[in-house]
Amino acid sequence: MRSKLKTMLLAFTATALTASLIINPQASLDASIRGLDMWWGVVFPSLLPFYIMAELLIGLGVVHFIGVLLEPLMRPLFRLPGVGGFVWAMGMASGFPSGAKLSARLRQEKYLSRVEAERLVSFTNSSNPLFIFGAVAVGFFHDPALGVILAASHYLSNFLVGLLMRFHGRKKDGSADKRPPSFSVKQAWHALHTKRLEEKRPLGKLIGDAITSSIQTLLMVGGFIILFSVLNKMLTVAHVTEAASSVIRHVLQMARLPESFSIPVFSGMFEITLGSQLTSQAASGSLLQQAMVVSLILGFSGFSVQAQVASILADTDIRFRPYFIARIMQSILAPACTFLLWKPLYENTQTLHPGSGVPVFLPQPALSDGWQAINAYGPLFTLICLYLYLFLLLHKASKR
């Protein structure tokens, strides 16, 4: 009976969405273009270099080297092998959904057990600093200093989620109780050399496979971005957003937040960029309250990112449920961190630097310039890479 209800629900949802697309073609087109612009100009050019380099680092054995070095740190903190540190760093640097892709890749390579992979993906799939500082802080709020508090609360809450998820699957994963080895550069170098000798592909083949695999993943990501951009727009056109926001208003009242945040929160549940932008445009609410709502949206990640993660994990035995629970945990922890860090990281900074509110040791201007550069040259970079991808596919097909 439950299976039949699920089939009926999925069929009805797909039919309703298709009907809304037919009834509202212009709104659908506008939403598709918005999603395509985001993928074409920002997501693809910002993620592709990280994906390619990550594939090369795995293939050349550098991940083995990093894993041995970080084992004494990652094992006691997160009950994970040292290679988790590589995924954690790459996930923070490149953003969604890099943590999930690399966790799945390492699981396929047998670096991680299933439980360890579920722990790892739960806190390594985060937003990148370029988006937080460039798009949200500067682009939406026109306040570079706000990026400090948003980034600090986002990554701190991620860290706390990792500490909490160390208890996930504890009884099933006896390997996590192993005592971590001592720090040894010699053992790390030996692991790197051994892995390199095991890799039989020539360097050219390794690079070509890395490019092909990375672009295939990003094409899937682009499809999800466009789909959820259209879905969000159709919900707005059908007045579902207004109806659902009435429920969110009661939750916001319990949290003592203005009701004007209801629509931004609902939109942010589907897509973090739109939710963050609408939050910055909210008519009421203090800047602290806006920052807390944006932190909640970034922590939850949105159904668009979660669908991307689910699609990536589907190729492995890693379960999606622990990741989803971790997102709920972070959506609670991130606003709390923003509230606690607001005075020391924002108000005190404004007092010390009344002109700009930006500490001299933080690289917000560089991140903002990087965001502008990606918006300016991202589409050209994407076009060149897609031509390269087609060339590699045709070259591979000609050899068969």
TrEMBL record:
| Organism encoding this protein | Ectobacillus ponti
Top-down, what is the taxonomic lineage of the species of origin? Bacteria, Bacillati, Bacillota, Bacilli, Bacillales
Alphabetically ordered keywords of this record: Membrane, Transmembrane, Transmembrane helix
Kindly indicate whether the keyword Transmembrane helix belongs to this entry.
yes
- Domain Nucleoside transporter/FeoB GTPase Gate per the UniProt entry, residue ranges: 42-140, 218-314
Query: What protein is this chain from?
Result: Sporulation integral membrane protein YlbJ
InterPro entries referenced in this protein's UniProt entry, alphabetically:
Gate_dom, Spore_IM_YlbJ
- Spell out where the chain crosses the membrane: 47-70, 77-96, 130-156, 206-231, 291-312, 324-342, 376-394
